[in-house]
Amino acid sequence: MLFVGDDWAEDHHDIEVQDETGRRLAKARFTEGLAGVAQLHELVAQHLDEDEADQVVVGIETDRGPWVLALIAAGYRVFAINPLQVARYRERQSVSGAKSDAADAHALADMVRTDSHQLRSVAGDSDQAEAVKVVARAHKSLIWERTRHAQRLRNVLREFFPAALQAFDDLTAADALELLAKAPDPDAAARLTIAQISAALKHPHRHHASDKARVIRAALRTEQLRQPAAVTTAYAATVRAQVAVIGTLNAQIKTMGAQVEAHFGQHPDAEIYLSQPGMGPILGARVLAEFGDDDHRYADARSRKNYAGTSPITRASGKKKTVLARYVHNNRLIDALGQQAFSALTGSPGARSYYDELRRRGTGHRAALRQLANRLVGILHGCLKTGTVYDEAAAWSHHTHTAAA
């Protein structure tokens, strides 16, 4: 067998090849792209026949990109290793703190040679699942970016125009953006008429637009501390820029959301995901994207829960034992599962009962939601393994019997 460590950068890959004893057979640096992959295959061919590609084990710090796909297509066994694991492994070999790309390639080769049984190989997800991942991640990234710009806008308004924060609850809403674009400073906002404000409120089909318009106008006309005129003009220009960015992000989020639903709807597991409590097409797409659809990736429900980051970890030493939430996890997945758990409280009597019981025991809100999410991941795993949609009675039967006893 050959063990290959691949330390990648944007434009090159540092490679080390070892045999089963850990003896270095070759080291090289290849450029990113088709030529580099071809050179890597030539290097491997110097030590193995073409029909022995399954005897090549590769360690690399990423699980996506055309380079990784090319390695998998060649028949190599590829392990995507967390950079934090590589750093800790490197510290086992040396405490000096020295680091180089070639040394990282050596550490990666060592890891897949000695510890591949404890590492997770790159999942064999379908092309449909990969497509869902691309659009779902892009959609969520746009939402995160909008949140950042909304916070920046909030900070700017707090500095010179705090009345706007009282007038608008949601700075990403279409009506707030339209009015701030028309009147980005206190004087211009004070001149807005009821008719102008009402016209903006009618676009998102708000109820009681006239009453809301009076409340907004009153808030915009309240006396506030002021900045000098020149500074106010500068701040107003900043508000216009942020409003334009948020408006563009709103449009692209809507467009990308339609793409998410379209790609997700074509996946064969979409019906199972949509049957889960608290899960619609957007959340379902996000969860599918992060879990993938490789049937052999998760040996059991516990494995899926551990990957999700919803299951707790135990630290025990002597007489001391603590149970903690997992600190290292997939942020996108844990965010989607948390939203699902919260939504399930109103959509599933079983989920609500399970949450309420945890709260009665003294568990905090966030911890109870995390435990509920962990339970829902187990239910999802069972549905995917059996190919059946969610059933409320079957999903919570064990919990109901335990509570009754």
TrEMBL record:
Ranges where the Transposase IS116/IS110/IS902 C-terminal domain occurs: 274-355
PANTHER family membership: PUTATIVE TRANSPOSASE FOR IS117-RELATED, TRANSPOSASE FOR INSERTION SEQUENCE ELEMENT IS1111A
Molecular function as annotated in GO: DNA binding; transposase activity
Biological processes per GO annotation: DNA transposition
InterPro entries for this protein: Transp_IS110-like_N (IPR002525), Transpos_IS110 (IPR047650), Transposase_20 (IPR003346)
Protein name: Transposase
Domain Transposase IS110-like N-terminal: 4-162
Domain of life of the organism encoding this protein: Bacteria
